[in-house]
Design brief:
It comes from Candidatus Scalindua rubra. This is Phosphoglycolate phosphatase. This protein has helices spanning 22-33, 39-51, 57-69, 75-102. The chain has 103 residues and is mainly α. It has a single domain, classed as DNA polymerase, domain 1 (Orthogonal Bundle), CATH 1.10.150. The termini are close together.
Length: 103
Amino acid sequence: MKFDVDKYRFFFFDFDGVIVDSLETKAQAFGALFKDYGEEIVRKVIDYHLQNGGMSRYEKFKFYYNNFLNKKITQEIIGDLDREYSQLVVEKSRKSAVHQWSD
């Protein structure tokens, strides 16, 4: 059965894992943000995310830049990371929810 997204006006997202298991989705999104820095950095980013689930993404961005990249982070960079992260999570969650509910 195919799930026709265009038939619906509203979608509800619950990002604490009740509807869609978002932990892995968010881990993948954090990793994707830092893929240009290599596999070691991606692994560190994902591991840190998984170990610090309740921490704000903004604090994680700062931590990653300061501790893994040894770079200063600006509000502009945080904003860019936030927008890209949000897009990745929403897209992956949408695909996951469609897949989950269409099986």
